[in-house]
Each structure stands twice: as C-alpha cells, then as structure tokens.
C-alpha cells in the first residue's frame, strides 16, 4: 500500500519511502540532496541556493559568487558571465561612449573589454582611405590604407581601379589610374 503522503525526491524523481529531507521547498532523499555544481551530496547544514537548487559552500564561493570585473565588488544577485569574467548586470556595459548594457546583446571584445558593435566600428574598425567610413567586411589593402572595393578608384577620372590594374599614388596617397597617371 502506498504511503498516503508519498513524496517524490526532487533529485531522482522517485518516491521517498524512508528518510526525507525537506529543503528549498522541495523533498529529497538525503543522499540526493546534492550540489548543483559539483553534484556532491550536501551533508552539512550550511549550503547556498542558486536558481532554486542547492549549492555547496565551496562551489558557491568559487563559481556562483563572483567579483564584478567592472566595479571589483561582490556580485551576489544575477551574475553576467562574459569574456571569462563575472559582471554585475549594470556593469557589463559598452566600453565605448554609449555605455549601454550589453547583457544578451552582441558585442565585440577588444583588450578584454566589451564594446557594442556600433561603437567598436566607429572606434576600431579600419577606415576606408576613400570615403573615411568604417569597413565592416572585406577590405582592399593598398597605399598603406584599407579601402572599400568600390572606393578604390582613380582620384582624377573616378574609374574603379581593379586589383590587377596599374596605378600610382599622389602625395595624399590617393590612387591615380594608369590613363591619368603620366
Ligand atoms: Zn532521490
Ligand atoms: Zn559543490
Ligand atoms: Zn559591478
Ligand atoms: Zn557602445
Ligand atoms: Zn569607402
Ligand atoms: Zn584616372
């Protein structure tokens, strides 16, 4: 006959027949009350909680609790883990001028710091030697500069200069095609 108040162990989902442990609003076989991180049984009275599950003190200190890479203070609530570091949600922000929160957004890393893609482009992406705007995709390298393919054209006649065409540079390092170049 089944026990009228048969409880189910949150760890193994099986019925608990003998000793029951109640913690975190759940029931457990004592041997299944285990740390969320290292899976080791938690025997001591002291444990921590993370997302409704028990975490042993050791794991809590090394994995859950963390020092924010932004402000160097302890993060006790929601930890953002990115770039191999931990951050307060409100401190994981763009290192460029916009300072927006980057959690859950795409970002680009430079020297261990996160940047939103717009600021990264503005600050660090190569600039086109022709139009001076950032080059996101493939760039053409010529005259110590990067160029959009369409921007690499003769300064005088504005004809595009192909990769294999001959050209010379004027003193502003702008290309002059063979036709105009003499
Ligand atoms: Zn169990
Ligand atoms: Zn643990
Ligand atoms: Zn912080
Ligand atoms: Zn930004
Ligand atoms: Zn350009
Ligand atoms: Zn030309």
Automatic annotation (TrEMBL):
Keyword presence, Metal-binding: yes
One Gene Ontology cellular component: nucleus
Q: Which InterPro entries match?
A: Znf_LIM
The answer to whether UniProt assigns keyword Zinc to this entry is: yes
Q: Which Gene3D superfamilies match?
A: Cysteine Rich Protein
SUPFAM superfamilies xref list? Glucocorticoid receptor-like (DNA-binding domain) (SSF57716)
Highest taxon of the source?
Eukaryota
Which compartments is it annotated to reside in? Cell junction; Cytoplasm
PANTHER family attached to this UniProt entry: FOUR AND A HALF LIM DOMAINS PROTEIN, GH01042P-RELATED
Please provide an example of a Pfam family that matches this protein in its UniProt record: LIM
Domain LIM zinc-binding: where?
7-66, 126-182
Return the protein name: LIM zinc-binding domain-containing protein
Write the record's keywords in alphabetical order, separated by commas: Cell junction, Cytoplasm, LIM domain, Metal-binding, Repeat, Zinc
GO molecular function term, any single one: transcription coregulator activity
